[in-house]
Design brief:
This protein is an all-alpha fold. It has helices at 3-24, 32-49, 53-83. This is Nicotinamide riboside transporter PnuC.
């Protein structure tokens, strides 16, 4: 299997896993943002390799929203706990 196909497969699997975690609305749902981030990076790389510029632009936007989700759901709460606030 080519590198591009591996990236597409990895991006798809992690995107689905992230969506399921977020949609489940359970205690660990915030970890879905990690799946989304992995998916966006790998799908962005895939889009670049196949020269799908619209898909690449979409994945870049998803990377930004994933960064916000990671910050709000995982990083900021961990910093709050660590600071004792």
């Amino acid at each position: 299997m080519t590198t591009a196909r591996w990236l597409e497969l990895i991006g798809t699997i992690f995107g689905i896993a992230g969506a399921v975690l977020i949609a489940a609305n359970i205690e660990v749902s915030g970890y879905g943002w990690i799946g989304f981030a992995i998916s966006s990076v790998t799908m962005g790389w895939f889009a670049y390799m196949i020269k799908a510029w619209g898909l690449l632009a979409l994945q870049l936007c998803f990377c930004a929203t994933n960064a916000l989700g990671l910050w709000r759901w995982l990083i900021q709460p961990a910093l709050t706990v660590a600071s004792g606030s």
